[in-house]
Amino acid sequence: MEKYLNCFNKIKLGEYKMPWRKNVDPIIKSYLDIQVKESNKFRNAFSGAKNPANAQLWIAIANMTKHTFNLELKIKYLEGTIRDLNERLMAITEKKPEDILKELEKEAKQTKKTIKKKLEVKKVKSSLKKNLKRF
Question: 22 versus 12: which is more confidently predicted?
Answer without folding.
Answer: 22
